[in-house]
Amino acid sequence: MPAGVATVEKGTAARPFASAGDFREALTLMLSEVDRDSDLGARLRSVHAAYRFVFADLGLILNVTGDQDGSPSIRWKFSDRIDWQPALTLEMDSEVANRYLQGRENLAIAVARGRIRCSADVRAALDLVPIIRELSERYRRVIARHYPDLLLP
User: Fold this and answer.
1) Taking Cα atoms as reference points, which of 152, 80, 126 lies closest to residue 118?
2) In a domain, 51, yes or no
3) Cβ-count burial 21-55 (b if 16+ within 10 Å, e if not)
4) Which pLDDT tens digit goes with each residue over 78-105?
5) Range of the domain at 39
6) What is the value of pTM for the model shown?
């Protein structure tokens, strides 16, 4: 194999989203489901920490936080212009994000191998990471319905 060519373990390869708009739609659908879920939405809000995803290949940024005004909802914005400070930032390409959000990419291994870049307030990250991991079920459901060719085994 030529030098510099990355390999991906069998069964984990996925094509990236066709556009930033498609990925944004999938993420919006997922977050809407989470927000309507009384248990998962409440757990995400209870952490009182915000997080940011940066999808470098698509030029897409997603910021998520529990609502600051006490309402029972989460807020998200596809912009770097926000009125809150993220405690956890994960930067990756959309192909890696698709694997990670489906629960098919281990965060620690991806960070160690440079597929995901992470900056965080450690305490907030320890609270957020298990909840973000639970988003996988919602994300996989959205992908299965709207983008079945991106669903991983």
Assistant:
1) 126
2) yes
3) ebbbebbebbbebbbeeeebbebbbebebbbbbbb
4) 999 998 889 899 999 999 999 999 999 9
5) 20-144
6) 0.83
Residue with tokens 């060719």: 149
CA distance 114 to 31: 26
Q: What is the DSSP letter of 15?
A: P
The per-residue b/e assignment along 72-107, b for 16 or more CB within 10 angstroms, e otherwise, is: eebbbeeeeebeeebbbbbbbebbbbbbbbbebbeb
CA distances from 137 to 40, 68, 85, 144 (A): 11, 26, 27, 11
Domain count, the chain: 1
Residue 68: DSSP 8-state:
T
Q: How confident is the model at residue 48 (pLDDT cuts 50, 70, 90)?
A: confident
Q: Is residue 9 part of a domain?
A: no
Full strand arrangement of the beta sheet holding 117-120? 74-77, 60-66, 50-55, 86-92, 117-120
pLDDT bin (cut points 50, 70, 90) of residue 2 is very low
Instruction: Give the total residue count for the chain.
Output: 153
